[in-house]
Amino acid sequence: MTTDHHIMNTHLHTLEEIKLLEQERGNSVEFIHPTPFRAVKTSLDGQRKCFINICSCDRVGKPECRSGVSEEGRRGWCWSLPHSLHPGRQDTDGKGNKIVIYDVVFHPDTLHMAGKNKRFMDMVDDAAIRGIQGAFKVTLDHKNVKEARTKYKGTPQPCVIRRPIPGVSARESFIDLQDFRCSRDSAQSPRPKEIIVTVDLPLLKSASDASLEVKDKTLLLESRKPAYRLELPLAYPVDEDRGEAKFNKQKRQLAITLPVLPPGSFRESVRKPE
Asked: What are the residue boundaries of the PIH1 N-terminal domain, all occurrences included (predicted)?
């Protein structure tokens, strides 16, 4: 959320917690911070605008080429373009229209070749679109893909590379990283014991200069000097009476811990909307 002067960053779970969850599924995870290369614009399911951020990271597999035969029987070269996909996230454009953003990460060598050859760039775009459609079961307009004016749409986010842990049997689970993002498109996730919200407040000198209110499934943080305001919907109803807030003066960071109400509790049932 953008304030008058700065941006507040919020996180429901730490990266370490996500690593532990993935280990229970038999996966090792690596968090990468991709480098923006180009963004393209298309449409999602024929209903809303969609942006695909094409990015690079040397932790993704390098492109590979081998000889092969096409479906028409012609000999040629077959390219393999490894890439990592990030779940789509909701956002809005400058006019307030809802959009969806995906990140697709390739090896720098792949994008280096794409930058010199349009046909290779088309292959990269095609691989990104097919990857998104296959992984997230959506339909993108393949015929009307245009390059965006910016290299990256939205706020950059870390991506995840999952690899199976050799010799470890995964416990059956249906948890995805998007379950722990604070957004309306997040899937329903296993109920946590508490929600931790970390807010960066670089101009705030003391916690007494800000007011914090937690009610039902909403967190509201405000201050006048400096001018900050954050209204955050929470994924679960919380017990505001037992919540804690600690302000780190060195980091200028407010950590808010909110116990989640157990399912079926009286207080939760009372707060459910009609």
From this structure: 15-167
Taking the whole predicted model, whether its pTM rises above 0.70 is answered as no
| pLDDT tens, residue by residue, 159-204 | 776 666 665 443 333 333 343 343 434 444 456 777 888 888 888 8
Residue boundaries of the structural domains of the chain:
27-164, 177-271
Write the CATH number of the domain with boundaries 177-271: 2.60.40.790
